[in-house]
Amino acid sequence: MLVFKDIIANKIIDSFSTNKRRKIYPMDEEIKNEIFQLINKGLLIDFSNIYKYERSIRVDYYVIGHYGDMYDMYNNLERNKYKAKIKGTIEHKNKKWNIYNWD
């Protein structure tokens, strides 16, 4: 499972690294563990909406549960995001990673 946590963390870091001038720092193990706990509950990371600000970059996430049919999950994506059990943001700001819940 350690490798899986690193794969997910690296995917998030890669999606944030769109500009060579903006350095994205590695995630702490604590943040990786929080993300991994959410994965076990059915995590959806919305990579189609990455928000960039002057000193931060963030992506929203939703815990929507587990789906056997990914087409059903994708075709009802907005409804699933709205009905998510947990909603939040993964943020890189001032060389540090944070994870926030909205609810």
UniProtKB/TrEMBL annotation:
This chain's protein is named Uncharacterized protein
Domain of life according to the entry:
Bacteria
